[in-house]
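Design job #97: recover the sequence.
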């Protein structure tokens, strides 16, 4: 089974919220537990800022050749009707990139992206042979339309997406509550909706802060020794106004305690909650709003809080209380929606719509030491029942089950065609849209986008050997002798599993060319008519290695190298020595800044091949 996971849920602004964290973690869980199955990730090249982080998250889990990027011209956000033409073109390219991989399953990590950003999600019926799966987080906007669907254009956008769920083969619900909610509100077959649950990342665990770290944390955020912690969003369902009222009631009996809101909130929301707190008689320092915090800071807050409280009355899963329990914090939360599934103990829940109930449970958790210890013990054990491996295995099992039920078909579809013919079909479809004649789309850029978007399943990678200096001028130096010797060895005895492809770049150009004419001459042959030094094309899984020392040129190629790396090319450089840094006085003054730029450039990428252990040790120390 070949599984293609559309990662746009981890690429838009959602990457800063629970959807993004869930999308990456689910994909990691599937990748870790794939067994004999193949897994490909599909990324949107228009959302380029997120690509490097996603690739880094899968180092050791998936080869770079299995992380693919498709490209189109933006903007394509659904909020602006002027984007409709570009959006349609982008949708066709994305679908062609998926078809090129010949998937058995296509999983969408978040179907609700694309209204205010450049995400593009196709229609279910466009997947002809593959099962289409989607993560079902919740249907909160559907159950609270006055609050979440007051924008007429977004309402139509959201309702179209929710309406399309019936045409998906698999829905992976993040909780049993979300599953039951979907079955009650949408025309779905219960056999196609699976609860795969969720989990908290491994970074959330009990830690003992040093006294210095504890003092620094308290100083940075203005914390008292005892504080009640909340982390998460600030919209109405999070129920923070009632939490503030309940906390004010608790303060009458437990005086020296604060209420801390961890995470980024807009300033007008902060001012609103501060005003509500003052109206309840709380002092300004009784509430702390941390603003944006790092994961390490969040872990530290979980580990040092006196109590964690989660008052939200509607959640798809409720990840923060699970994170807190994994860190050994005593946790209480609402007794509604999916939160009890996570907490797993009725005694640690309250009625979120009753401030007296919230206050009573907070007070009990703060003053009853035996109850507090019981919550900590229960939380640590309960958290062991959730893991991303279990979620990944559940997702794969759902795919396998539905794939067995998929009727066989002999109908020829684009997935059966060779790449060249599929590109012709895509070109015809794009021309038919009429968008190319309007002048809004750069046709040359479009052609390049198609070239890089449709590159087929993983095949034999290229070893792209940069010999720019050798092509320009063979100085017969020691470095050039090494370059010539390695190049000759690779060309005559190619490394197993690679196609050796010499390339070069000219000083006056910003891109790379195939070194076909040089290579023919280098091997003692006469260049033929087909030995053209055209601009190179590369694919995910290729490896670039710079044999030459290009002090002047390489830093100028950084944008090009960044683009190669984002597309899935691994970048390596040969390092001959660090003498210009170590013995600067032996070299011309003008060389030093060039060398510094060069070594800082290569340090950005995947690795260095050093000509001796001594040089390797020196480079690592640097």
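Job complete. Output follows.
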């Amino acid at each position: 089974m070949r599984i293609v996971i559309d990662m746009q849920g981890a690429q838009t602004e959602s990457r800063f919220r629970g959807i993004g964290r869930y999308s990456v973690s689910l994909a990691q869980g599937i990748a870790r537990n794939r067994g004999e199955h193949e897994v490909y990730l599909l990324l949107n090249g228009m959302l380029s800022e997120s690509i490097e982080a996603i690739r880094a998250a899968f180092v050791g889990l998936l080869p770079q050749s299995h992380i693919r990027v498709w490209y189109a011209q933006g903007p394509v956000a659904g909020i602006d009707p002027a984007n409709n033409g570009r959006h349609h073109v982008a949708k066709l390219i994305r679908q062609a990139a998926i078809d090129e991989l010949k998937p058995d399953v296509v999983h969408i990590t978040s179907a609700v992206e694309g209204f205010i950003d450049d995400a593009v999600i196709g229609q279910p019926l466009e997947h002809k042979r593959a099962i289409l799966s989607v993560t079902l987080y919740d249907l909160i906007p559907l159950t609270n339309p006055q609050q979440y669907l007051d924008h007429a254009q977004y309402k139509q956008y959201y309702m179209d997406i929710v309406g399309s769920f019936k045409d998906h083969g698999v829905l992976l619900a993040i909780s049993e509550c979300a599953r039951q909610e979907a079955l009650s509100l949408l025309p779905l077959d219960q056999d196609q909706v699976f609860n795969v649950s969720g989990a908290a990342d491994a970074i959330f665990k009990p830690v003992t802060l040093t006294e210095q770290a504890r003092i620094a944390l308290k100083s940075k955020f203005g914390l008292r020794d005892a504080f009640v912690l909340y982390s998460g969003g600030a919209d109405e369902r999070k129920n923070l106004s009632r939490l503030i009222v309940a906390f004010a009631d608790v303060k009458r009996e437990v005086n020296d305690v604060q209420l801390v809101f961890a995470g980024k909130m807009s300033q007008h929301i902060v001012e609103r909650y501060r005003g509500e707190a003052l109206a309840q008689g709380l002092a300004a320092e009784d509430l702390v709003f941390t603003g944006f915090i790092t994961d390490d800071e969040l872990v530290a807050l979980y580990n040092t809080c006196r109590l964690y409280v989660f008052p939200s009355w509607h959640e798809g899963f409720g990840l923060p209380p699970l994170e807190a329990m994994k860190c050994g914090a005593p946790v209480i939360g609402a007794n509604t929606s999916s939160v009890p599934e996570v907490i797993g103990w009725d005694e640690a829940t309250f009625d979120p719509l009753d401030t007296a109930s919230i206050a009573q449970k907070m007070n009990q958790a703060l003053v009853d030491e035996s109850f507090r210890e019981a919550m900590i013990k229960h939380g640590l054990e309960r958290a062991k029942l959730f893991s991303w491996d279990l979620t990944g295995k559940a997702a794969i099992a759902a795919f396998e089950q539905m794939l067995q039920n998929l009727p066989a078909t002999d109908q020829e579809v684009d997935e059966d065609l060779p790449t060249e013919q599929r590109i012709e079909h895509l070109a015809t479809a794009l021309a038919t849209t009429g968008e190319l004649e309007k002048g809004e789309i750069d046709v040359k850029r479009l052609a390049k986008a198609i070239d890089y978007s449709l590159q087929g399943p993983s095949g034999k990678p290229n070893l792209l050997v940069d010999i720019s200096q050798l092509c320009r001028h063979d100085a017969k130096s020691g470095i050039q002798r090494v370059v010539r010797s390695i190049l000759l060895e690779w060309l005559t005895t190619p490394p197993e599993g690679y196609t050796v492809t010499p390339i070069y770049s000219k000083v006056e150009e910003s891109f790379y060319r195939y070194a076909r004419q040089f290579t023919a001459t280098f091997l003692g042959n006469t260049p033929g008519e087909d030995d053209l030094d055209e601009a190179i094309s590369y694919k995910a899984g290729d490896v670039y290695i710079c044999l030459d020392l290009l002090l002047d040129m390489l830093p100028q190629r950084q944008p090009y190298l960044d683009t190669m790396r984002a597309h899935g090319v691994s970048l390596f450089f040969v390092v001959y020595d660090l003498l210009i840094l170590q013995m600067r006085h032996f070299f011309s003054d003008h060389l030093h800044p060039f060398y510094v730029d060069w070594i800082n450039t290569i340090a950005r990428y995947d690795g260095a091949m050093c000509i001796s252990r001594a040089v390797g040790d020196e480079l690592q120390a640097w």
